[in-house]
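Summary of Year 1 activities. Much of the first year was spent building the evaluation harness for sequence design. The harness presents a backbone, in tokenized form, and records the residue chosen at every position. We chose the following record to illustrate the format because it has been used consistently in internal testing since the harness was completed.
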């Protein structure tokens, strides 16, 4: 594990610590982890996903297939099959 010291911050009168927008961009919440042995508090960033997409993150087999497809696409290991727009259904 590699750590990088960014800056020192001080809690305000209510005990809050401001991290700034650079460190919080795209983050919806943090898990607070206490490392008592080393006297540290670690903030683990979290992002939220829509409930209708949660199935993908719970189904590891499908998630791995999606990841492989993205890797194949990024490395050019795919070919165009044309437009699938005729199969699109605007109703969910």
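For this record, the design step produced the sequence shown next.
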């Amino acid at each position: 594990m590699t750590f990088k010291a960014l800056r020192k911050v001080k809690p305000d009168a209510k005990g809050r610590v401001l991290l700034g927008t650079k460190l919080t961009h795209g983050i919806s919440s943090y898990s607070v982890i206490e490392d008592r042995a080393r006297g540290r508090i670690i903030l683990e960033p979290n992002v939220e996903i829509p409930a209708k997409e949660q199935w993908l993150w719970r189904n590891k087999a499908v998630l791995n297939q999606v990841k492989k497809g993205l890797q194949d696409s990024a490395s050019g290991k795919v070919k165009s099959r044309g437009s699938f727009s005729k199969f699109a259904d605007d109703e969910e």
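DSSP finds three helices and two strands in the chain. Quantitative recovery figures across the full test set are reported in Table 2.
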